[in-house]
Design a protein that fits this description.
single chain; alpha/beta; Rossmann fold; Four Helix Bundle (Hemerythrin (Met), subunit A); 2 domains; 5-stranded parallel sheet; 5-stranded antiparallel sheet; 13 helices; 15 strands
């Protein structure tokens, strides 16, 4: 599947400012900050959209978080191998297509293209491998075969399920108790009450053909993949085992990332990822942001209303990526004001020291992607009317572009 165009990311090293520190990010599995410092190439997998709706601010906040991680890695001198999936066949997509009378493939294609446009406008670094579920049926079937050989697959009617307790470490990613898992599982696509399952938490690997739904003819029978095995198969194919970061929104910790990790571990006998990094949820004026409530704040609508994409990006950067927060109308107003102040500040003939500010921004961004602290430091620099460095404007402009992705 085609990705989107990549923004130009300037190099601070080319300005004689060396490379940034080792990146530390919060690992959900260990509940602690962990250094992420591979030898040459950082490997990143981020779970992508199910394309039944447009990009809202929660989506944008998640993909921005992992854009910041890529920028911090690159500033440290690393290459990045980034893979993202698109769940372009799944129940929510099929349900929306049926409800709106649109062919599910047309709906998916339309929303994927809008997502590409939004990511391009926000200057999000694209994945090298942008992979749809529909194009990975053979990969999924191969992984299910490996799980079957490991004795962790069983049949319920014509569907195939994964025995989650075949993984001795099941539960390590989320740290949840079984009671907590059972409460969350049905809220996030699970079917704990299905008759015939060995355990309520066992998850679907392969769904046999249903009347009126898309399916593919395979050696497993005619059907389509389960959600968790899709991501496990794509990640293993493009990144291998024990890759650096598995990322996504915090709503994916359980069951999605827990299940994907267990499936991959049972199949390969190797760790799935070194760290599990999750972005917080974005609400709207005290409520969950959702289509049913009609309160989605869409990136495309903000752009259509004339808001500068860099102001949208700044509005997101004002919140730490791991925090849960609420979108209010003044978010974009404050971001546009900040953007104007910064653009004026970097245009000054002489300004306070640029390299000193670069050090502060780098320190913030390599300390669990602390964008709000970086923004505060830039605000203080912009407000300082002392004049010492004739190159400061260029230096700071480059640093803001390189590390925060904001084009001034």
């Amino acid at each position: 599947m085609r990705s989107w165009s990549s923004p130009d990311v300037p190099s601070l090293a080319e300005l004689g400012l060396g490379v940034g520190p080792v990146v530390r990010v919060h690992d959900t599995a260990t509940r602690d900050l962990r250094p992420s410092d591979p030898a040459e190439t950082a490997r990143l997998y981020v779970c992508g959209i199910t394309p039944y709706d447009a990009t809202h601010m929660g989506h944008a906040a998640t993909y921005l978080a992992f854009d910041l991680l890529q920028r911090a890695w690159r500033d440290h001198g690393l290459d990045v191998d980034y893979t993202q999936n698109v769940t372009d066949v799944d129940d929510p997509l099929l349900e929306r297509a049926l409800a709106t009378g649109v062919d599910w493939m047309d709906l998916a294609a339309r929303e994927i293209e809008l997502f590409r446009e939004d990511m391009t406008a926000l200057r999000i670094i694209p994945p090298a491998n942008y992979v749809g579920a529909v194009e990975t049926i053979d990969l999924v079937v191969g992984l299910i075969d490996r799980l079957d050989q490991a004795g962790s697959v069983y049949r319920v009617d014509e569907d195939l399920y994964f025995d989650v307790h075949a993984d001795a470490g099941f539960g390590a990613v989320s740290g949840l108790t079984e009671e907590q898992m059972l409460r969350i599982f049905p809220e996030r696509g699970g079917d704990p009450d299905r008759p015939g399952k060995k355990h309520p938490l066992d998850c679907l690997l392969w769904q046999a053909e249903r009347p009126g739904e898309p399916s593919w003819e395979t050696r497993l029978g005619k059907g389509r993949p389960g959600w968790h095995v899709e991501c496990a198969a794509i990640a293993l194919e493009h990144l291998g085992t024990d890759f650096d970061v598995q990322g996504g929104g915090s709503d994916l910790v359980f069951p999605h990332h827990e299940m994907s990790a267990s499936e991959a571990t049972v199949a390969t006998h190797e760790p799935f990822a070194q760290s599990y990094v999750h972005a917080g949820m974005v609400g709207f004026e005290g409520e969950k942001m959702s289509k049913s409530k009609g309160n989605l704040v869409l990136v495309s609508k903000l752009r259509a209303a004339g808001h500068d994409p860099m102001a949208i990006r700044l509005a997101l950067l004002a919140h730490h990526y791991r925090s849960d927060w609420e979108w209010f109308g003044e978010e974009i107003t404050a971001a546009e004001k900040r953007l104007a102040v910064w653009r004026a500040a970097v245009s000054r003939t002489v300004a306070p020291s640029g390299p000193d500010l670069v050090t502060v921004i780098r320190t913030a961004m390599t300390n669990d992607l602390d964008a709000p602290s970086a923004l505060d430091a830039i605000d203080a620099w912009a407000a300082d009317d002392s004049a010492a460095d004739p190159q400061a404007g260029r230096t700071v402009r480059t640093a803001i572009d390189t590390l925060l992705g904001v084009k001034l």
